[in-house]
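User: Could you check the structure of this?
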Amino acid sequence: MNRLTSLATVLLFASACPAAVPAPLADHPGNVFLSGEAVTVPLAGIADGTAWQALDYEGHKVAEGRAAGGRADIGKLPVGWYEVRWGEGGAPDRRIWSAVLQPLAVPTPPSSPIALDVAMAWFYKESQMPAAASLCSLAGVNWVRDRLSWGEMEPKRGEFAAPDSTRYDASARIQSAAGLRVLQVNHSSPAWANPNGKRFPPDLRDAYRFHREVARRWAGKVLAFEPWNEADIVQFGGHTGAEMASFQKAACLGLKAGNPGVIVCLNVFASPNKAILADLQDNAAWPYFDTFNLHHYARTEEYPRIYAEFRAASAGRPLWTTEFSMPVKWAADEKAKEPTDADLRVQSERVAQAFAAALHEGPRAAFYFLLPHYVEGQTQFGIVRGDLTPRPAYVALAAVGRLLADARPLGRVAAGSPIRAYLFRAAPDGRQREVLVAWAREAGPELALPVKPEAVFDHLGRAAADAPQTLRLSSAPVFAVLPAGTAAKFSIEPPPAAPPGSEGSPSPIVLQAVWPQERTDLARSAYRVPSQKVETMSVYAYNFGDAPAEGRLEVTAPNGWHYQLPRVVKLPPGERVELALTIHPPEEPASPVEAIRIVGDFGSAGKPVLSVRVAPEPPAKKEAK
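Assistant: Sure, the predicted structure tokens are below.
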């Protein structure tokens, strides 16, 4: 197998998706309109003649009238977010929401980093999917992230759901038809593969076959796969770096066997645990992923540290941030789970903040979490409600999608505290420009620009009447569109450089250590073994190639450790062999965590690597009689 397809080549493949300027659906789902259209919204269950009024984001009345035919015919409105109220007091059941977006001037570029976690297959019925996909397209979103259930797709080993029969087939078809590029992710093992569904299947042939079949099934529709979601934390199995690496290798080989042009993403990290990241690196996993994937929900001030730790483990592969946001809490209404008006404003302001600060760190795709109405505990993540009506954060996302289209970081402007200002090369409305995104921790600071901007927009994408050369900042970000070359006139801190790429080719031979989960020290990404005692660990060697393979295994262990492992391995194609690795730590190990490294030499089939971190435990002390 040759080296994995370069991301540039894959993006050329991805650009084969339909490219057109999106237009709203005829029924305007979510009451989302484009500038220039007449806005009309339904008013549920009210009598004709009932008085209504429309308010803008600031609460100013912009229109009023009386219901006719169960609707409010508001007329044309400028770009923004709107609330329509009727009756007395503005009770929640007497309000409806709407948005007006600036139409996209050109199709969203296939290399734009603006992406959105939609979880389409899990949150929307097939009849609702075109509406949700339309909202993504209108907002200038390029990539969307979906959700997958392995057990639904393969209810029995080797028996897959009939073609085009599942919600996952529907979501892939509908999102792709809307011009969206689809990333799919799985979270669990089916019961037949592992009774503990949170954990990887112990037989990696199951992972290989499943990923081969879904990559083949959705070729041209699902362009990228994350083989597992947040495997490094206990909620999704709590796997070591070695386990993540072996699973990644099998999944990657299966995906490329099913569709050589697919983007193979790393099974994504939830947090930058240094031990797990180092363990993954020691297992030489980098030839088996096109993108290094990560998540974060931290404050923007923490982004440099988080990205630095992930970047150091990326082997130079492009970063993809497939979940990120700074969510808000919902308020007292248990049924609605709606944030307060003040927190809705905070949520919307944080959209551009999070994108600007994240994109400065270099990810080639950044997936905001999340489009649908979704809560965890008291936290509300969604930027639209269950009926698809927009929260202000959706309008803020559309501003990012349009104004930071195809954005690449140029640097952070040295403006001093409390100002945060990031400069990007981007293509707002299809024109190559430089775009500044700036805000401050409190209202009042001013930022003087070296040239007069061509245009200035607020965080909802509303244009300033006169583009000022001095920006008065607050917690609500502003976008300043500047001529190309303006960056040279700023004092800027350049974005972090990507590390050099690690070389290597994937081998069809994969090695895997299997160890009881209850004897795993996840914080140290290590297996606990008793000292002063011989321990046996199962090591499996797989051949995912088409031809028989024979090779030798060499073991490197710390000084003072004794070990045994069969040296010669013969592997038929598509099979695995179990090997017994016996290890005997010394009485006093030199380090609390040690690594045992196994490297194979299978000639033309490559040199597979397995590194296992072990933590010797002293024998239990005998109680005195």
